[in-house]
Amino acid sequence: MTTESTQEPTESTAAEAPQESSELESMRAELARIREDSLRERAELDNQRKRLQRDVDLARRFANERLLGDLLPVIDSLEAGLAAAGNDTGPMREGMELTLRQLLKVAADNGLTAVDPAGKPFDPEHHQAMSMVESPAHPPGHVVQVYQKGWLLNERLLRPALVVVSRHE
């Protein structure tokens, strides 16, 4: 007795093939959607991580902004005291110079830099004009005198320089 191993497709198996194909296509579409969602969520998490890292970096760079801003009048006072002392030499002047150097070093180590624009063009981003004067020795729009130095903290303006600006007739 021999049995035939090949079966002829019946109507029920022929009807199941398109249904399986349809299910397969819908599963592939669902898989593609899930992959897109996964990639989108991964990108969003990466963006959040970068944003958080940027915020932390900014917080570190400017965490001491208030303290350094409060020290600026102390620096101004020490510089004014040294200017008033003139060429006087002695332990008091040496102590003030040493104190000022140490204070400026600590400030610089924390990202503080002076804006001393004497003789340079007026920059409204970093300077505040207190007045304008006729000055044949300076080109128009240049700083003639600095009343008070300005300061930058990590390239961001902490205090503008107070200046006198030249003008031409």
From TrEMBL:
Domain of life: Bacteria
Location of the protein in the cell: Cytoplasm
UniProt keyword annotations, A-Z: Chaperone, Cytoplasm, Stress response
Compositionally biased residues, Low complexity: 1-21
Annotated region (Disordered), positions in chain: 1-27
Main subcellular location of this protein, as a coarse class: cytoplasm
Listed SUPFAM superfamilies: Coiled-coil domain of nucleotide exchange factor GrpE, Head domain of nucleotide exchange factor GrpE
UniProt cross-references to PANTHER family, sorted A to Z: GRPE PROTEIN (PTHR21237), GRPE PROTEIN HOMOLOG, MITOCHONDRIAL (PTHR21237:SF23)
Assembly, per entry: Homodimer.
Purpose of the protein: Participates actively in the response to hyperosmotic and heat shock by preventing the aggregation of stress-denatured proteins, in association with DnaK and GrpE. It is the nucleotide exchange factor for DnaK and may function as a thermosensor. Unfolded proteins bind initially to DnaJ; upon interaction with the DnaJ-bound protein, DnaK hydrolyzes its bound ATP, resulting in the formation of a stable complex. GrpE releases ADP from DnaK; ATP binding to DnaK triggers the release of the substrate protein, thus completing the reaction cycle.
Family statement: Belongs to the GrpE family.
Protein name per its UniProtKB record: Protein GrpE
